Records
---
Amino acid sequence: MDNTDAQLLETIADLHGIPEGSFNIRKNGTLLARNSTADIEIVPKKDKDGIDIIVKAGVKNKSVHIPVLLTVGDFKDTVYNDFYIGADADVTIIAGCGIHNDACGDAEHDGIHTFYLEKNAKVRYVEKHYASGKGEGKKVFDPVTKIFLKENACFTMESTQLGGVTYTNRKTYATLGKKAQLIVKEKILTDNDERAVTDFKVFLKGKHSRADIVSRSVARGRSVQKFGSDLIGKNECFGHVECDGILLDKARIVSTPKIDAVSPEASLVHEAAVGKIAGEQLLKLMSLGLTEQEAEDAVIKGFLN
Amino acid sequence: MLELKNISYSVKDEAAGRRQDILKNVSLTFGDASINVITGPNGSGKSTLIKLIMGFEKPTAGKVLFNGEDVTELGVTERARKGFTIAFQQPVRFKGITVKSLLELASGRKMNTDDMCECLSAVGLCARNYIDRAVDGTLSGGELKRIELAMAVAKGGELFLLDEPEAGIDLWSFEDLVKIFDRLRDKTVIIVSHQQRILETADKIFLFDQDKIVSAGRGEDMFSLLTRRPSLCWRDLREN
């Protein structure tokens, strides 16, 4: 592991070196380090690139790190990871991918992640994407996340795109059983000519299932972001989608929320607000002694906090 | 000491196609170590005066002098750094910014729990319950108002502009508010208020009506004048 690897690991997974417990670190399409434990087993797939992560029933307060590093250009890495979370387990999964591309060719990582949560299982899934490098090659992420929640399971997804990503197209699908809960907190920062497309499709199938999706985005430069969500309420359920965007410079944000109450018992809400930073927010912070630029930075930092 | 010299402020009335005066030739002096309360009917230009002092708006005519220095052309940031501190009438909400971050931005330094406790307990809030909360719609109007005042306490300064500090604060907590003014007795404090308990604390009261000062005087004298004739509307008071 060199300095670039260490920096990327720290940025995307708050890791200072090799973690304890179960982990799988992948670099440029090959395995860098892996540790499998009795509670959280990591098994490489035989038919394609990827791993199965198996969390035993009842395992609590454990975490697993599965970061991916990409430090070369002209490389497309697609990986299929399946997560099987046993009943009553409660774990944190820290994924994330860092690309450092100094080359002319494109570097792309597509993580296809599927989560199966058994009854009463609970997962906090933290995923950070970050890219750096001076090369002209694009830095691309096209992740697909599929989530299947059985009765009373709870999945919290915290996904953050920190910057430097030339193009991303994120797709998230979820199917919720009885009393299952999905919480999504998405944060995206784009600049220059970057593009970010993000789509959610959530089926609220089970009675008393709940979904809460909050997306906060900041678009600078000439970057463009597109947010789409599709909530389908097939039972007595509650769904809420919120998309807040801050626009700077000549950036553009398109938000298309769709809610479909198939069941008359479904209660679905969407909220969307896109615009510049409110003048009164800047004035308040300037009245504390900040310059206009410092005030703007403070608002954005807090917003993406 | 803050001096306003012949301050006028007008805006263009699009409907009527002419300029409308908000403030007309106002000259006032606010001394060091004094609590000054500005009162008067809605729309008489009180909040505009506060905005002009803080630099949110520039006067159409006249000068603002702070300790003898002409600050009329200075921006908000520069005035804040010279010791101008404002608490807004309507506190601003910030998605994601915590009470802790705002207090640190206000004070310009890292704060530990004891520091924050001092600022927040001054406004009747327990730091433990608030420092990690976002200053957004999850806080009530009264809580936001208290945090707004805590920020002014955290920032410190020489000139305090408090625009209706009592708005949204329950009557039971008025003594907390009055204690804050007591802490600021050695500063120049300008408060816009209609509240009797606040008028009582004033060294000097200024009565505004229709774009200008109609009456000013020692706190006690003005207070008894205002309370002796509660049935009179402001305009009648001026005529008397």
---
Amino acid sequence: MNDKIYKVVLFAAALIMPIVCGGVVYALVTDAYEAFEHFGFFEFLTSSEWSYTDGAEQYGALPFITGTLMTTLLALVFCIPFSLPVALFVGEYFKDTMAASVLSTVTDLLAGIPSIIYGLWGFYTLRPLIMVLNISPQGSGILTASLVLAIMIVPYAASLSAEFIKMVPNDLKEGAYSLGATRAEVIRKVVFPVAGSGVFSSYVLAIGRALGETMTVTMLIGNTNNIPDSITSTGNSMASIIANQFGEASDLRFSSLIAIGLVLFFITAFINMIGKMMIKRARIS
Amino acid sequence: MATIKIKNRLAKDKAMLWTVCLFAALTAVPLFAILGEVLLRGYDQLSWSFFTEPTPTAYKAMKAIEAGEPIPGGIANGIIGTLIMLGMAAVFAIPTGILCGAFLAENPKSRFAQVVSYLTDLLQGTPSVIIGIVTYIWVVVPMKGYSAIAGSVALFVMMLPLIIRSTEETLKILPASLKEAGLALGGNRARVMLKVQLPAAFGGIFTGVLLAISRVIGETAPLMFTALGCSFIRFAIDKPISAVPLLIWEFFNDPNLQELIWGASLFLLLFVLTLNLTAKYLAKKWNQ
């Protein structure tokens, strides 16, 4: 009897997940419906107009989708030269040493810093630097946001990559060493081919993180509703347009913002799903 | 000829090692740059009154700046709001998360558990701003106003997957013999879970809860559309309320209050990093 109650209680607790996730999708879909119905699904996604003058309201998500993709990809590019060395340092060169544990504590702490503080630092330190270096006149923009985003995703990419690099079997590496390979050659010819898919998947998950990052991007991207024409120009990401305008939006604009949220939700869900699937496969092999 | 080639390879090997070390070390720079900046600009704002007084109005702050005095007031309203919302979220998220995690650990092969496990990943990866707008639709719209309740619902949804995962993972790495011994002694499954497995997993679950708290305590985006913010100390849970990250956002946007940013950020940063380090230390200790 007791076992039965126990099972029912656990099952009931587990039901919370389908309820919450179903509720998220339901809320987003019902409130995004108006925008999609008004503008048409594909027109909404491909229109670059975002104007809320009364009577001539026109909302399209393209500038923000572009902004999100640009910041995310740039962040990924800036992140790799740092996260890969960290992963090699922790998972190969100094595996299980004090130095590795210090470095992984440092990256853990980086992961713990709230995004609003990253935003402040980017705004008060990095932005003036970019102005001084004459990279862009206003300082804020896609580039500034991406640089800080890159720092934010380094810990995620590095710690997961290190895990896979650590798992490369020693006898494979020893085989290469016994043939006279140097450590750099072992890394290139043995570690990367074996751990490669796992390392790759950690970058997919890092992308998933960067896509939805809100406060940092909102504080640094410059908040203009146009399609950014270069990496130094200002723009808005899907998350930052929501953060900026949700509080004051009503009716059609409200629905359009929810629609952007829905699109962002599905993009991140899709990327995360791919990442998780790849990790599972990499772990099995 | 051959020796040149070998020298070349050895040089490449060395270059690789130094590049890895250099770039790995560079990764630490932002941490210290951020810590340093927040510490240097914020330390002189921390005082007793900073933690006991609410935020000043923009007018009061302007007057103080004009008179060349330090801005009066502090972030007590934010600290109290954060504690109230975090407390409410934790009270619901911890038991639900542990039970749900126990379900996943007990039924690893059931189809439903796989779905739940997948949804946990989905929710964990969902951007916090989306949790914010969804909670707005769920709670703020029907209640016809922003409230501490709405804020804690958003935090609850964000904490849940983190607690589920840490519970599940900790329970799964416990030796099976532990559970079997409990069952062999005649305990039913609920009793074995409560008296044997959960106590043995306490360390891991506790670490997970600490990490979940440190993750959501700095969240700003989900609170902007749910708790909204409030400039005085308030304990009502059905009214708008402030939180420390919300105050930082407010100070950032209000030129008169900008001086207060660094004190508030320093407080938040120290709190979050201490929680993080404590969790990591405890995890290591319990693993041994």
